[in-house]
Amino acid sequence: MPDATRTSLRVQEPEVADLGAGTTLPARRSDDLRPHLPGVEPERQVNDWGRSERVEGLLDRTLVDFFYNHWFRCEVEGIENVPPAGGALLVSNHSGALPPDAAMIAKAIKEEHPHPRPLNITVEHFFKGYPGFSMLIPKIGCVAAHPANVQRLLFDEQQLVLVFPEGRKGTEKLYRDRYRLRRFGRGGFVEAAMRARVPVVPVSARRRRRRSSPTSTS
Fold first, then answer.
1. Residues in Cβ contact with 179 at an 8 Å cutoff, skipping those fewer than 6 apart
2. What pLDDT digit, counting tens, does each position of 160-169 carry?
3. DSSP element (H, E) containing 17
4. Which pTM was predicted?
5. How far is CA 140 from CA 47, 123, 126, 133, 193, in A?
6. From CA 4, how far away is CA 178, in angstroms rounded?
């Protein structure tokens, strides 16, 4: 017969640690060990996608706000077409490698919309190969450009999602072709929007020169 002590599920008695010199200290299971854990920053809030309100807020106050209000002097038209609630797919053009369009669109919804909402920005997978930068982009609201991620954000979480249908081809355009649309992808994001039954909102990001001011984005 098998040994009963080897198959028993009973909780064993606390072990006794020998500290030497005849001193013993029994293990105590009733103690609350939580005070010994490292402290958690109360202001740090990170969602399931890795988005950090603290990092995003810091970047917004230092860089995005400067570019939005002073460098580009953004002008927004038709912001009311972005739904105040529920999922929606925002489709925009690309204007070259590392364009500020995505950040400016997100800032416009935050500042100009009657009901400000966070915007989830889809990015190409090759950005994950850049050290440091790959750790930053999820914290500011960027997600990998995959139809499954878009479907979850639109249908399950009822969020706003920004996609660039030109994909990587849009980042390879020359400066003189920055407003010429390249061939779109296979339409996987549109299918995700159709399955989620959410509206598709077209966005046109462009820059224009004014006589008495620097380059502007609208």
1. 93, 95, 206
2. 999 988 766 6
3. strand 16-18
4. 0.70
5. 11, 12, 17, 11, 23
6. 77
In tens, the pLDDT along 53-73 reads: 889 999 999 999 999 999 888
Q: Residues 6 or more apart from 86 whose CB is under 8 A from it?
A: 158, 198
- Cα–Cα distance for residue pair 131/137, rounded to 1 Å: 11
Amino acid at 106: A
> How big is the chain by its Cα radius of gyration, in Å?
26
Q: Which helix (H) or strand (E) holds 201?
A: strand 200-203
With contact defined as beta carbons under 8 Å apart, do 189 and 107 qualify?
A: no
Angle at 138 between CA 215 and CA 93, to 5 degrees: 40
State how far the Cα of 37 lies from the Cα of 128, in Å rounded to an integer: 31
* Cβ neighbour number for residue 100 with a 10 Å cutoff: 20
What percentage of the chain's residues is helix, strand, coil (to nearest 5)? Answer: 35, 15, 45
